[in-house]
Specification:
about 700 residues, single chain, mainly alpha
């Protein structure tokens, strides 16, 4: 079979040339520093020997050895990366073989033949929503070929078709199918070398500390070597920026290139559909993990997390009106960016992957369409997918520490509990996401408006009104980003807004323009919120219902005013406790803890009020309740004569985090009660109309 040959794009060639240029610059810089280090070492060793021979005695021997060590320590620092290997943690991986999964291995073999690369050294399964080709790398891997390993996530397999898995694996192997792609490996390894010299110094630091502790004379030369090394690291930091930026640019082009290879194998459609579905598949997987995180204290785990993931993915798709076809959600590009109204485009030079939107656009441009698409589940490539899923689920939960004997939750119970929790933590569909990321705008509920008689529900929550809300959110976010550009905290020379190119100096002018747009938009949203209130107030009057609208609104708006003050206790206390993360004199530590005592009293008062409030009672977990009771039981000390009381500090931080969570939860519950009341009024109005 003739392997696929893809013509490399001009952009890819440009990024490759740029990467090679910066690699060459790094090599020249490194050789120069290494030559200087060798010269320093020779000089220090020679001077040390000369000093010892000049007048052999204890002090000259110690000083001579210390002087020689100065050069050796600097030289070893520059060479230590040679002995460092980067091994991938495989504790969460399960190796499979051709004997285990012949059909899957047959597919992999077909792909590597088409793509023109070698069969992976080993194939592993993980629980992730991901697939990757990896290898253990070291400095020497730049010169000697290393066979790659393939990792396939069952959370991915579980949510895609056979053709989609073929496309994804073709993409992964595509990274290694062309000689030009090997430049990426060199840039990657150069980055690893620089990273090792800049940040991976724990072992080296222990070595020089141990050497310095041998003699106070040695410590003099250790300090000198550290100063020289700091100078070397300053140069390397500058190099790391340019080399890494060029690697990220090349990496993005490599993604486009590998996508094109996948399109040549399966057509562009399977990779496109899997990219669009990836976010909901990953969200479903994480939602199931979160569900079981909350049940660790109950000693509960899953029998098959992937069966539950598939259910959650389908359930969420139905809730969001995403089409299900061939038993899988068919997410469209429009749905993916439904609530993203930002017009600001900044080329992220540090992103290793292009955006999904850019990848899909490039895939479609290939025009490599296919009619021979296999829509069967990728799970069918496994001999016994369900058994494999159960085994991986067991492996996943083995890392969790339980307080007692653990039991599984049946699939039926999971479905019921997940649905219940979802409905408790979401707002009625009636509002179409209008309130998901905004709160009702404050206004005087006694104010009487005009032209409210002909207001219709569909107009209040129309696509136009939803767009207004999310456009306002996008404007707020864009303004904040532009402020960062204006103040140069975000280093960007140029950016695009609404398709127009701007320079950094023009950002302030654009900010003022967008502020005016936002102000006008917020006025329209406030007007719509006013109409919403009176529409539901009218429904309440028409149904002769108990008048709750006004009290619910006022109760919510009152709490919203108080919310900032409640959160301020948490944020201020968090900031005041930052000192424990740094080396601090003992007296200062005691003074800092004395300073936070009034803040702690406020926190305890607020926690007690939450515990006494019946509205919160059903939302306390046993863990939160136990932590609050313990924290409130007495005044705690967090520092002794010379050491922190770690358990007490852990309890304090748990109480603070639980407090912030419960404050947020209380605000959500009031908002949900208000919106549920409004949704009930609509149902009652419809019932009256039918009668």
């Amino acid at each position: 079979m003739t392997p696929i040959q893809i013509k490399v794009s001009s952009e890819f060639k440009a990024q490759t040339a740029k990467a090679i240029a910066f690699i060459s610059l790094f090599i020249l810089t490194y050789i120069l520093m290494l030559a200087l280090a060798v010269g320093l070492t020779v000089l220090c060793v020679y001077a040390g020997i000369f000093l010892i021979l000049l007048k052999p005695m204890f002090i000259t021997i110690v000083l001579g050895v210390g002087l020689a060590s100065l050069g050796i320590l600097v030289l070893f620092f520059l060479l230590k990366f040679i002995f460092k290997s980067h091994k991938v943690d495989r504790s969460h991986l399960t190796e499979i073989t051709n004997a285990n999964e012949p059909e899957l291995f047959k597919l992999i073999d077909e792909i590597v033949q088409k793509v023109g690369t070698s069969f992976p050294k080993k194939v592993y399964l993980s629980a992730d929503v991901n697939a990757a080709v990896f290898y253990d790398s070291s400095f020497w891997s730049m010169f000697f070929p290393i066979r790659k390993n393939l990792q396939i996530g069952m959370g991915l397999v579980n949510t895609i078709s056979k053709s989609e898995l073929t496309a994804i694996l073709s993409h992964e192997f595509g990274h290694f199918s062309q000689k030009s792609m090997k430049v990426g490996t060199y840039v990657y390894n150069v980055n690893q070398v620089i990273f090792n010299l800049l940040y991976d110094n724990e072992g080296y630091d222990k070595l020089i500390q141990k050497w310095a502790s041998v003699s106070s004379y040695f410590s003099i030369f250790v300090v000198a070597s550290v100063r020289i090394i700091e100078g070397i690291q300053w140069v390397l930091k500058e190099m790391y920026g340019v080399v890494n930026k060029s690697y990220m640019g090349l990496s993005r082009e490599m993604e486009f290139h590998a996508d094109e290879i996948a399109a040549n194998v399966t057509g562009y459609e399977p990779l496109k559909s899997s990219l669009l579905r990836m976010s909901i598949a990953d969200h479903a997987y994480k939602s199931v993990l979160s569900f079981y995180d909350n049940r660790i204290s109950e000693n509960k785990k899953s029998e098959n997390i992937f069966k539950e993931q598939f259910f959650v993915m389908s359930f969420l798709s139905q809730e969001n009106n995403v089409e299900i076809r061939n038993n899988l959600p068919q997410v469209s590009g429009q749905e993916l960016n439904k609530f993203n109204k930002s017009k600001l485009t900044i080329k992220d030079q540090w992103a290793s992957h292009p955006s999904e939107e850019d990848r899909i656009n490039m895939l479609e441009k290939t025009g490599l369409s296919s009619t021979n698409i296999d829509h069967e589940s990728a799970n069918l490539l496994f001999r016994d997918a369900e058994k494999t899923q159960e085994n991986l689920s067991n492996t996943l939960f083995e890392s969790v520490t339980y307080s007692g004997e653990c039991s599984t939750i049946s699939f039926e119970i999971f479905q019921a509990e997940f649905k219940k929790e979802f409905l408790e933590n979401t707002f009625p569909k009636l509002f179409k996401g209008y309130y998901d990321n905004k709160n009702p705008v404050p206004f005087d509920t006694q104010q009487v408006g005009t032209d409210l008689d002909n207001v219709k529900l569909d107009d209040l929550f129309s696509d136009t009104k939803i767009d207004m809300v999310y456009t306002a959110i996008a404007l707020e976010n864009d303004i904040e980003t532009l402020k960062q550009i204006a103040y140069k905290s975000l280093k960007v020379k140029t950016f695009d807004y609404a398709g127009v190119r701007y320079g950094q100096k023009e950002s302030n002018k654009l900010i003022q323009q967008l502020k005016k747009e936002l102000e006008l938009l917020n006025e329209k949203i406030a007007e719509n919120d006013f109409k919403i209130y009176h529409y539901f107030k009218k429904c309440e009057n028409a149904n002769n219902s108990v008048s709750n609208m006004e009290s619910l609104y006022e109760q919510f708006l009152k709490q919203e005013k108080e919310l900032e003050a409640k959160y301020e206790i948490y944020t201020t206390l968090s900031n005041e406790l930052q000192f424990i993360n740094f080396t601090t004199p003992f007296e200062q530590i005691r003074a800092n803890f004395f300073k936070i005592e009034p803040l702690e009293k406020k926190l305890k008062k607020e926690i007690q009020e939450i515990m006494d409030d019946g509205n919160y009672r059903s939302h306390f977990t046993d863990e939160i309740k136990s932590n609050f009771n313990l924290y409130l039981s007495k005044d705690w000390k967090y520092f002794g004569t010379e050491v922190y009381f770690d358990k007490n500090l852990e309890m304090l931080f748990a109480a603070m985090n639980n407090y912030a969570f419960m404050v947020s939860k209380g605000h959500f519950l009031l908002k949900r009660d208000l919106l549920n009341h409004q949704a009930d009024l609509v149902l009652k109005t419809q019932d009256v109309a039918l009668k």
